[in-house]
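During the no-cost extension, the postdoctoral fellow (Dr. R.K.) reprocessed legacy sequence entries with the updated structure-token encoder. One reprocessed record is reproduced below for audit purposes.
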Amino acid sequence: MNIVVLAGGYSHEREVSLSSGSLIANALMENGHQVVLLDLYFGTDVASHFDEAYSKLRKDKYDYKVKRAIPDLEALKAQKEKPNEMIGNNIIPICQSADLVFLSLHGELGENGQLQAVFDLYDITYTGTGYVGSAIAMNKILSKEIMASRGIITPDWEVLDQQDQPTSSVPCVVKPNASGSSIGVYIVEEKADLAHAVSEAKKYSESVLIEEKIEGREFSVGVLNGEALPAIEIIPKSGFYDYENKYQEGATIEICPAELDPEIAERMQGIALDVFKALRLEYYSRIDFMVTAEGGIYCIEANTLPGMTPTSLFPQEAAAHGISYNELCNTLAQIAIDKK
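Re-encoded structure tokens follow.
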């Protein structure tokens, strides 16, 4: 197949996306596909058709390591002639002329359904959940409201708009409503620190979510084509599972399959499938959980385009299920073609 791997974009998570995209592109090439990796935000001026892009931009191998610092989006804008255009030059015609677009995007544009809606209008085939499920899952508040309405246990929460002041008790978790990779997320233990955490989170999203802090162990469960993968336990060596601990090798201990009571593991997998259906997700996703010492299972959120970096959870869960990285990428590509 002729495949465009779409990565980067105008997002605080573009570093993660470029790392994921490089590995995905390599895997697809090893599987025999013709592949071009493009940055959604910058696009390209050297080609307007897949065949031309492949002849001029192809590489034998892609490589990208996530930098420690969160990207400066204002500095990114300064590099582009038309900084407010979120889809770069020739992205649409190149994607239209490819057999498939493999989405390796993280953050708002790419995971919030807007790009999926545009691609639907242009009849472009792409991997992952469509625009409806993507929009729901990216909105943490809406996701929690739907989960709660379906009887899925999720931590209690408070919603703050830009001018609102917090009333939640501590300890709590403060997070932007529409952001990922734990960017703008704060664990607040002291009341005096709450206002600062809210102010920082508001830099990344118009609305802020303040969640009850659940004491316990952290897990994630992937869902692939209607089947729940083995749970993975996440144990940061210091602090919590923030941006640096997620993407710097060796910063977090990950155990998969998780060392869990089989009954709890099975219940968590069942809840993951319930969340997958409730949020109208498609084909693959990753669902995050906290589990208390008493065995209480709390669903935190869903990820529609799970990371595919060397430290990412979803590929580790697939591997524990007997699916290699290359096989996983090929499967996700084939699912997208089949659904079309």
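The chain has 13 helices and 13 strands. The first helix runs from residue 14 to 30. The remaining legacy entries will be reprocessed before the final report is submitted.
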